[in-house]
Q: What sequence folds into this?
């Protein structure tokens, strides 16, 4: 359960939430140009591009949930249950394990255009990072300021969908989500016009009625519609900070703990939300336990070791003293 | 456009948002026990109770949008357009101008029970705080850990409604909002059971489908339903901090700037969100321009002067340095 | 559970459905000008107006569910559970038992204007037609070609609401139904315009998407919205027969047996549907068991005895022989 | 715009509506065992099976919209705009023009099982019945008492989907419709249980609220959901006549003229509704202009000529005389 939004209004920002019933000790990880990443079936050129993003480090391997590279190319992996199908290695293809796709693309491509080309012969393999960690069903959104594509490896092959909406959530597949949007296309942030009745105008009893019918639950389909609506109907904060706007949009899509309850009684919550600022190359994030925005700059590009910043969960409240 | 929630899970918290197209220079204002408040038609005993809340100071008079007193009694005023009707002063009644109601109740009542009794003969008058500031159409929610009431002064008189849901938004009147909830009563944070088809089970394709149909727009009616759902289906943050939970609920109800657009093109946004912790007597708040939680303690009860803390709008980001 | 629609397009038609878990042996009953109707607390002038409508005859008293008089004034009684409150007889009022209201109005008023005046001092009494038949909670729509009013006797008194929509269903009260309509005011029979996305147009994948969001269940609120939509967006049948159009609208509001299921397992169904043609003074009806339209003319105005036509339930199928 | 429903409750019935802005002079056409049907690319054995259904005769060729054969196998063609893709003739395939599919299947297959096998190598060709009548984009539902399949010829090939719901409407393709149903799976004909609030029960103000959220518009997706709901929640008429039940379901899905309005201002209406009774081999139908059920028996199986019964549009009202 996750939401990703690529937005090109003003500057290109890339936001994503991770919605789960637990956290796996995520941190923000920087991967410099000389870091050795051993791909199971392929190679990349060195030095590659540096990148930053959130994920976990498993046996020395960074498992990125999302990230941005030094050119501002972004990618995110989102859960894709009951849809993702991974394959055996296939000769003549670009074979990438599901956890290798994000680092491969961000370490080797400068732009979405290059990523499209690099992935044109993609085969997503079922390799696990280790015996204890089987692959997760995932699909991906990759974007820069020129657009976004979604990569879905399914039973009938790998689909690379152009995604002009710049939004991705979870299963079902993107074409379903896009078509489901059609029912809501008349929704507006402005007041509704009366079309139902010729004889009398219903009272416009509340601001906001023009979007009456916008779905408010936390299913993947409803979050997709809401994300498209909000992306198209919101504006920067007064300080001109588009990052603030993106966090406000993500707040409307975030899952308060328990708003989804699993059969075992656990609640799903938005573990973290990140917004990558591709102009300034800053990776911003908030966590469920601490809503203050934190930022990490992608400014140390050289080196061969991963470095990481933990995502602590302590609410960082600023207490104000009253003047005497 | 505002939302207020009174929650008694664990400790009594009182949250509210202010959703407007502009701000009026709101601050957090503390009113101590000896502050002189000149009511137009009535008197209170001195010393009265101290209180804290958000609002603006106009000609020395605190215009509280919401507040909490030293006993933990809380009140909020929310827009009530096309419904609120204020009257001339009436003999034998408790005559309070619309802007006097919150301070009167919080300065003179220890509990909801006392407030119910104090307001039993209420007449809300059309007095303005000054010639330049005509009264705003408002209704009110007052609550402590025992429950909540809503006060609505309408054309047919003053209604004091018991409000077991502990939620208030805007027009229409509370009884409408409560009845409108009925259509959504089957919504659940758990996965839905199949009842539509005897022959085959539809795929439960996404977590969260049990609440499919929950309204997601920002009208008063949709926020009311969403607030009730979230209040009843969320749980404290891991640190046991119910304040964090309340801010997460309020985030789901907050209006990203422009998600409501006025005829003149201005966007409505959630100017501020506050959560009053009635156990520790701390007033927490966030603003549209700064999402970090700030807190002000109601701990200086004596004195005769208002003191206030401005609600600055600068996003307070914590930049993290990577380890070398 | 019932729906009534007054429509003035072309000619004034008055349609209603009766939605129940059983039938009580309804018939179409004509009441001529000299029929003696003994009102419990009031009198009418003789000869009064003749009328026709559906109902049952109990101990010689016609209990009309709806009807039309010789001037084309129409009235219908619809279930109003948990809302209708009947009173003791009150001096100085027009005291009418709930079952007397329709005959009183139709026997004594030529027009809606006269009915408004006649009912201005109405008190609805709790008198039963017999000890075995306690009064049913009802509200009423009365209309002619000039408009419609709704009469609701509630705990706070008798309300006579102007009803410019010309639609009535069941509880809650009319003002609630009218306000609930506001959320659907943007719905249209035409294709939707894209307002949700600035970047790309969702596919208009099906005719009819402009009304996506129209409620389809059989609750009173959803039928009210659907009735207003259909009344305003449909047109006469090719033969110019507005009666056909009204039956098509009523079909969309009718309850197939079981679409509502009671706690005891019984299904609710649309027992009968009637359309009164006020120009030609014909009362048309269909029943759940026989969809062929039947018609009874109100053309025998003189006389003192009720006459009735049973509403048989045998499906009247026309078998066609193929040419050899 | 059409809806088809295959129902196996009691006896197997097959209902369909044709929803269009005009009619093309449809009639009910019987095709006997010795009728010569010249298929463009294939042959069938003679004598074939007799069939009956609705359609038009064009240059001696019956263009069936739907039909039933003497074994009770049924098929219907429904509009499938922007999805259907027809091909050139392909060697080694069963090449059928879109208008040939229904007669081919019903003339040559006794059962759904045989139809599945016959169509396993299907290629739908773009042949037109004549130069003046280009092929219509269609998909098909074929069913008997054992189940139903849907045939969709699309850009990526011919799909033959098992359809356990037994419902078909229009575009998008069946897998989309089936998935879209998931959001509504909790809807019930019974009263809802309160799950939204722990503290207080919302009022169950109306019968039918358990299905609140059922879509009521006339788009293909909303009709699909409504058809599944009604098929699963309705029961036979009191006389045990399942045909009556099916017409009641179809009434709830039928389009009153104008409820969909085209850009050129024309209204879409349900031109005809048919219900094939596969036990008694009777084809029942109603038309927009005449709601009385008419029936044609498939009982003259021998012969070589088509025979047809026109679908007249005159409302066949039965006037009842009052007893004197």
A:
């Amino acid at each position: 359960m996750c939401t990703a939004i690529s937005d090109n209004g003003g500057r290109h920002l890339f936001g994503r939430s991770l919605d789960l019933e637990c956290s796996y000790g995520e941190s923000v990880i920087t991967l410099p140009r000389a870091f050795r990443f051993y791909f199971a079936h392929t190679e990349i050129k060195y030095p590659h591009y540096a990148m930053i993003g959130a994920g976990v480090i498993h046996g020395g391997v960074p498992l990125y949930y999302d990230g941005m590279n030094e050119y501002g190319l972004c990618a995110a992996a989102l859960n894709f249950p009951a849809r993702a199908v991974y394959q055996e290695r296939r000769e003549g293809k670009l074979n990438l394990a599901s956890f290798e796709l994000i680092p491969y693309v961000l370490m080797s491509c400068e732009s979405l255009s290059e990523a499209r080309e690099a992935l044109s012969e993609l085969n997503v393999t079922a390799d696990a990072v280790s015996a204890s960690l089987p692959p997760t069903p995932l699909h991906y959104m990759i974007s820069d300021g020129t657009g976004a594509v979604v990569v879905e490896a399914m039973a009938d092959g790998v689909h690379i969908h152009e995604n002009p909406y710049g939004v991705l959530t979870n299963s079902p597949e993107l074409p379903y989500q896009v078509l489901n949007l059609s029912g809501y296309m008349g929704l507006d942030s402005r007041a509704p016009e009366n079309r139902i009745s010729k004889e009398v105008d219903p009272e416009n009893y509340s601001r906001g009625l023009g979007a009456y019918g916008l779905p408010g639950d936390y299913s993947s389909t409803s979050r997709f519609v809401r994300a498209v609506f909000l992306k198209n109907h919101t504006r920067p904060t007064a300080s001109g900070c588009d990052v603030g706007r993106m966090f406000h949009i993500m707040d409307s899509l975030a899952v308060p703990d328990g708003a989804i309850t699993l059969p075992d009684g656990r609640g799903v919550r938005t573990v973290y939300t990140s917004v990558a600022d591709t102009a300034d190359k800053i990776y911003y994030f908030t966590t469920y336990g601490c809503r203050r925005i934190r930022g990490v700059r992608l400014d140390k590009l050289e080196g061969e070791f991963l470095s990481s910043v933990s995502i602590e969960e302590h609410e960082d409240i600023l207490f104000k003293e009253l003047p005497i």
In short: Residues 220-233 of chain D form the longest helix (14 residues). Chain D has one domain: 2-171+239-310. Helices of chain D lie at 101-108, 112-118, 174-180, 220-233, 242-253. The radius of gyration of chain D is 21 Å.
